[in-house]
C-alpha cells in the first residue's frame, strides 16, 4: 500500500469560558481528523460557587463531575479537558475522555479488601461525607465513546501486530493521562490513552493500570487499529489480573505497567470491528 502523509498539522492554545487553558494539536489523515487537548487538573472543590448554585446549567468542571457521576470520590488527579478525538469526514466519531471513563467505575465494592482501602477514603478532602460503597481503585472497562453512526460487529479478524512492530516514521504521537490516583501511597490507579499515526495507519492504546502494592496487579486495555483506505477500525479489548504473590517477578519490578503486564494471565479478550456508516450523519 502506498504511503499517505497527512496534509495538515495544527497546534493551538485556547482559553475556554471556564478559564481552562488548553493546548490542542490535530492532524488530517485521509478522511480522519485526529486531535487531542491537554489541560490542567480538575479542582478539588467548586470554583464558581455563586454561579453553580443558580442551577441554570452553568456549572464549573468540578460541579459537572459531581452531577454526572455517582461515585462519592474522584481520583487525586483527573484531567477533564484531556481528550482524544478521531473524527471521520462522514461525521462518525471516536472519543476518549475521563468523564465517560469514570461513569464505568462500579458503585459497589467487589472490592480489594485491604487495610489501605479505609485509610484511602479517610484521606479524601470530603471524608466527612457519609461513606458510600464503590470501587475505590477506580477500575473501569471503558472502551472509548462511539458516535451513533458507528456499527460494532463481531469478527475473527485480528489487529496486525507485526505491522505495528515495524520501524516506520511516526507522523503524530501523544500520550494523554485521563486520571491517576496513588491509592494513599499504596499503589497506582491510572487511565491513559496513546495515539500513534504512521504513514499507512493509526493506532490507539487505552490502558487502565492498577497496582495495589503486595496485593494485586490489573490491566484493562483497548486497542484500536485503522488501516488507510478501509472503512472500519479494529478494536481489541483485553483484561488481565493476578495477585501479587502469584506473579513470578520481584515486587520492585511491578512498578511500571510495561514491565509487569506481559506477566499477567489473560482473564478476558474479544475483538470487534467498528464500521463507519458513511451514509449516516450525526
Automatic annotation (TrEMBL):
Gene Ontology CC terms, in alphabetical order: cytosol
Transmembrane segments: none
Pfam family, one: TIP41
GO BP annotation list: TOR signaling
PANTHER family reported in the protein's UniProt record: GAF/PUTATIVE CYTOSKELETAL PROTEIN, TIP41-LIKE PROTEIN
Family named by the database record: Belongs to the TIP41 family.
Name of the protein in its database record: TIP41-like protein
Naturally occurring in which organism (per UniProt): Leptosia nina
